[in-house]
Amino acid sequence: MSLAISVGAAGAQGSGAGAPVESAEGTQALPLVSLGRIERLANFPSKWVDARHVDVWVPEGYSADKRYQVLYMHDGQMLFDASRTWNQQAWDVHLSVARLVAAGRIPQTLIVGIWNNGKYRHSEYFPQKYLALMPAPQRERLITERLLNKPQSDAYLRFLVEELKPVIDAKYTTRPEPASTFLMGSSMGGLISVYAMNEYPQVFGGAAGLSTHWVGISKPNAAIPLAAFNYLRTHLASPETHRLYQDHGTTELDALYAPYQVMVNELARERGYVDGLNFETRVFEGSGHNENAWAARLDIPLEFLLRRP
User: N or C: fewer beta carbons within 10 Å in the chain?
Assistant: First the structure.
C-alpha cells in the first residue's frame, strides 16, 4: 500500500466554543503541535469505507529502538490543533499524553487520529449490531434519517483492524498486542470505541468513551439505549483482559446521559468489571459536550486507560 505522508511540528494552539463535529471536507492543513510531530497518512485508502486522512502524533525523542503503545482516536481532525478545527476547539491530546509520560504515569504512546467521514459520521460510528435489537419502526427511521440508508460501522471497524492497524504496526515500532492497543472517542466516538473493543477483543485491550452517546440521537428514547444494553449483556469484552472508561457532564447534550450511563455501569459491574481496577466511571458537574470540556478532564481517562497493568 502506497501512502502520501506529510509531517508537521511546532505551532500555536487556540480555543473557542461550538459543536463537536467537523466534516472530512473541512480544514485540510496539517495540525500544528508544540510537542512532537504530526505525520499524516493522507487519503488513506480502504476497500471497506471512504478514504480519509489519518493523523499520527509521534512524540519527541521517538526511536525505532523503543516500543510504543498505540491509542486510536476517532474524529481525528479535532484532536491536536484548535486553529485548524471548525469550532476553534481541540482535545490537545498530545499535550496530555506528553505530560503523563514525563510524569512516569503512562508508558510512551503514539496517537492515531482517524478523521471522521463528514455526513457519514453517524453511519460509521453507530454500532451496527444494535439495529437488529431495535423495534422495526424505530430501526427503519434511524437507518433512513441518521444513517442515510447506509449502516457501516462494521465496515469501519474492518478498515480499522484489517487495513489501518497493520500499516501503523509496520511503519512504527509499536507494541501490537491488545494489552497495548486502545481506543478513545467522545459522543458517537465513545459508542464506536466501546463497540470496537467488544467486536475485536483480540485486538483492543481497552476503550474510553467521554460523553458516550448512548441515546444514539439528539433526544431521550428507549429503543436505542435498550438495544445497546441488550448487546452489552452478551458482548461486553472480558474484564480479565480489558479496561473500560465512561464519563459524562451535566450540561448541553450531556444533560441527557445520566440514566442511561447508570445502566451501562451496572451491566459492566455484573460482567465482572471492578471500579478502580479495570473500570472507571465519572460524572463532571457543570461540564458540557465539547472539545474544551473533554480536554479539561482528559488526563483522567488517559491515565486509567494507558497506565501499566
Answer: C
